[in-house]
Specification:
Number of domains: 2
CATH class of the largest domain: Alpha Beta
Bound molecules: zinc ion
Strand content: 5-15%
CATH topology of the largest domain: Rossmann fold
Strand order of the largest sheet: 5-2-1-6-7
Number of helices: 15
Helix content: 25-40%
CATH architecture of the largest domain: 3-Layer(aba) Sandwich
CATH superfamily of the largest domain: HUPs
Distance between the termini: 51 Å
Shape: globular
Structural class: alpha/beta
Radius of gyration: 22 Å
Largest sheet: 5 strands, mixed
Number of strands: 13
Length: 431
C-alpha cells in the first residue's frame, strides 16, 4: 500500500508517498494522461512553496492520489482519515481500469460541508487563473484582470531560483491592473523518469491549493480552440461532449475547473493580448535568455507566425517591436524542414490549422516549403471567432460574469464558418 504523510516546514508544504512493495505498490506505473506511458518513481516527496492554512482531509487525499497516481497499488493510507466520498471517487471506473479496486485503510472522517450551494453567480475576482504566461492564459488575464494568477514553477528542492520571464510578466500585470499573483515553486514534474506530469490534473494542484485556501470559487484553465475541438489541428472533434470523470472527481473536493479559453484560438488570443498592450510580456517559451522565448523552437515559430498575420493586416496597430522573439528576420531563424514534418496530423501536436492560417493570411511572407507541404490543408480562417459549443463548457454560475465577457470579446462564428469548422479535417491533406 502507499502510505501518505503531509507536513509544513520552512514555508513549504510537503507530501510524501511511501511505496511499500510488500503491499503491491509498483515502482513503475501509468501516467494518467494521453498514452498512459509507464513512469518510474525516482522521488517520493513533492513540495509546494505555498502553504494552505486550511485543507480538508478529503481534499488533501485527492491531491495525494492525483500526484502519486502511477505508483499506487491496491491499498492506500492517506495523511488523515477520509470520508467515504474519497473511497468512491478513487474507485471510479476511470481509475479502476488501471488500478483495480483500491482499499483505503483510514476511512472515518467527516465529509466537507459545501461552502456554498453552487447557485450564486461567480465573479472573476472570486476565481484563480492557472497561469503559464503563454497566449491562452495571458488572454484570460486580459479578460479577467481581477482574477488571481497562479503560476506553477518547476524547480528542484533548495535550488537557486532561476530567472523566469513569466514571473516578470506577472509583476507587470500586477503593476498595470492590480492583479494578485502567486508563483508556486514545486518539484511535481521531477518525481518520475521520464520527467513530466504524473497526471494531467496534477499541474492544476498549485491553482487549486490557492483557490481552496483563499475561498475562491473556480479555477480558469487556458485551453484553446484547436486543443479542445480540433484534436490539436488534425480534424474537428466535439470536445464539449467528452466526459472528464477524473476532473469531476477532483472538482468535487476542490472547486470547479473551467476550460475558459476553449473557444479562443491562438490567433484570437494573440490579438486579445496585443490589443491590451501586453505582447512584450508573453512567455510562450522559456528556453531563451532571461527565461523568455528562444526564437528557435517551433512553438516560437507558430506564435510569431500568428502575430505576423496581425501585423500584416494592420502594421501600426501591431508593430513587430514588442513581440518577444527576434523579429529582425522571420522564417530564416527556424528549422523549417522540421516544421514541415511536425505540422502533419499524427504528431502529438500537429498544428495543421496553423499551416493553413499562415498560407492564407501571410501570403508570400510564409515560407515556400510550408506552402508546398500545406497546399491541400483546408482553410482555417474561422479561427478568429468562437464556436457556440465552447459556451457549453461553462457551468451555470460562470455564465453571467465570465462567459459574457468572452462573448463580448470574441464574436461567434458565422453559419458558413461553423460548417467549415465542424467538417474541418487535415487528415487527407498530406501525401
Ligand atoms: Zn522557443
Amino acid at each position: 500500500m502507499m502510505r501518505f504523510a503531509s507536513w509544513v516546514d520552512g514555508g513549504h508544504f510537503f507530501i510524501r508517498g511511501t511505496r511499500l512493495t510488500s503491499h503491491g505498490d509498483p515502482r513503475r506505473g501509468p501516467r494518467y494522461q494521453g498514452t498512459f506511458d509507464e513512469l518510474r518513481m525516482v522521488g517520493d516527496t513533492v513540495f509546494y512553496s505555498y502553504v494552505p492554512s486550511r485543507l480538508h482531509p478529503d481534499t488533501l487525499a485527492m491531491i495525494c492520489f492525483n500526484v502519486f497516481f502511477p505508483w499506487i497499488g491496491h491499498t492506500v493510507e492517506f495523511p488523515e482519515p477520509v470520508s467515504d466520498l474519497v473511497v468512491d471517487a478513487i474507485n471510479h471506473q476511470t481509475f479502476q481500469q488501471h488500478k483495480g479496486t483500491i482499499e483505503v485503510r483510514n476511512v472515518g472522517g467527516d465529509p466537507q460541508q459545501p461552502a456554498d450551494d453552487g447557485s450564486d453567480t461567480v465573479h472573476p475576482r472570486d476565481t484563480v487563473i492557472s497561469f503559464g504566461g503563454g497566449v491562452d492564459s495571458s488572454a484570460l488575464h486580459v479578460l479577467f484582470p481581477e482574477a488571481t494568477l497562479v503560476y506553477e514553477m518547476g524547480q528542484r528542492w533548495r535550488r537557486q531560483q532561476k530567472r523566469s520571464a513569466t514571473i516578470d510578466a506577472m509583476r507587470v500585470h500586477q503593476a498595470r491592473s492590480g492583479t494578485p499573483n502567486v508563483p508556486v515553486r514545486t518539484n511535481s514534474r521531477r518525481l518520475s523518469r521520464p520527467r513530466g506530469v504524473t497526471n494531467w490534473l496534477s499541474i492544476l494542484v498549485p491553482a487549486l491549493l490557492v483557490a481552496v485556501d483563499r475561498g475562491h470559487r473556480g479555477v480558469l484553465v487556458g485551453s484553446n480552440l484547436p486543443t479542445m475541438f480540433m484534436k490539436a489541428g488534425a480534424e474537428y472533434s466535439p470536445g464539449h461532449q467528452l466526459d472528464h470523470a477524473a476532473r469531476r472527481a477532483l472538482e468535487s473536493f476542490t472547486v470547479p475547473i473551467v476550460q475558459a479559453s476553449a473557444g479562443i484560438s491562438h490567433l484570437a488570443a494573440t490579438k486579445i493580448c496585443a490589443d491590451a498592450g501586453i505582447t512584450s510580456s508573453l512567455t510562450f517559451c522559456e528556453r531563451g535568455r532571461g527565461g523568455g522565448p528562444c526564437s528557435k523552437c517551433l512553438k516560437c515559430f507558430r506564435r510569431e507566425t500568428l502575430y505576423r498575420i496581425l501585423h500584416r493586416e494592420d502594421s501600426s496597430a501591431y508593430p513587430l517591436d514588442p513581440f518577444p522573439t527576434d523579429t529582425s528576420c522571420y522564417a530564416e531563424k527556424y528549422d523549417l524542414k522540421r516544421a514541415a514534418r511536425e505540422f502533419r496530423p499524427g504528431w502529438p501536436i500537429s498544428n495543421a490549422h496553423n499551416l493553413a492560417l499562415g498560407r492564407d493570411l501571410l501570403g508570400e511572407e510564409f515560407p515556400e516549403i510550408l506552402h508546398r507541404v500545406g497546399r491541400n490543408v483546408p482553410s482555417a480562417n474561422f479561427m478568429a471567432r468562437r464556436p457556440p459549443e465552447a459556451d457549453g463548457l461553462f457551468p451555470e454560475p460562470f455564465k453571467e460574469h465570465i462567459l459574457s465577457r468572452i462573448q463580448a470579446s470574441v464574436p461567434e462564428m458565422t453559419p458558413d464558418e461553423l460548417v467549415a469548422f465542424r467538417s474541418w479535417s487535415a487528415i487527407e491533406a498530406f501525401d
